[in-house]
Structure prediction request, 105 residues.
Amino acid sequence: MNIQINTDKNLTIHAEYQNQIEEQLTSALARFEDHISSVQVHLSDENGNKDGQNDKKCVIEAHLKGKPAVIGTTFGETYDLAITGALTKLKNALTTIDGKMKAHH
Prediction:
């Protein structure tokens, strides 16, 4: 599973944090690994340099083999919270899709 992390101009990710995000995604999405060709993470700060609540945005796109991409999006107080929230939404959507695919076999 290929994981790509993209950020806006307000954020620079250090290698350790990028590795932590990749490990979190790999672990959380392991049961869907056979269906996912790639994952793209988009991190942004909606308020730029200004302070704001829940202004950290995370969009996670899971590109499925032969199916449309599945997306989880959320805002959080921190990037960690935004990533965790988006990942939870993505896993819920993938679980639903996985159940439907099994039902049609």
